[in-house]
Design brief:
This protein has 196 residues and is mainly alpha-helical. 60% of the residues lie in helices and 5% in strands. It has a two-stranded antiparallel sheet. α4 crosses α8.
Amino acid sequence: MSKHFCAMMIVLLVASCGGGPQTAPRDLDNACTILKEHPEYLRAFRATERKWGVPIHVQMATIHQESKFVADARTPFKYVLGVIPMGRQSSAFGYSQALDATWDEYLESEGRWRAKRDRIRDASDFMGWYMNLTRERNGVSLHDARNQYLAYHEGHTGFSRQSYNSKAWLVGVAGKVESRAKLYENQIAGCRLSRW
């Protein structure tokens, strides 16, 4: 084999080893640190805000709750007799924890057949699409992190039936998402993102 061919093969091999899902941010309580550490997040969130109108802080608070910014997050396994794994609790996957059926609906609706749940740009675009459906179907403002999260968790029909009222734990989680969204909003206002 020629030296050039061998060199090209080595470069391709090394390039194929990297590029998988990145690690989660170190400080999940600081929006500025998250966005500085992962500038691709900021690009994705800005693109979604421009396209769908969902504020960056609402996107970030929802992703924090759903996956803690872990690209390949999955739900835990269910166990029989406490030890035998019997599959996962749901098909939720990726940054947005989108379920298979809802993700497929998004792909078909938007024609984004190459989109992946473990890519931040695709996950945030999915959230923008879903939250806009929530606004259209349930009248929830895109700035209302609490109710957007409840509809995100319960689905549009469940939200309209107020199924969350029988789940005190979920109402509590939605309150935490709202608080985190406000925290992130205040932090983002002070960290001069336009310079990044």
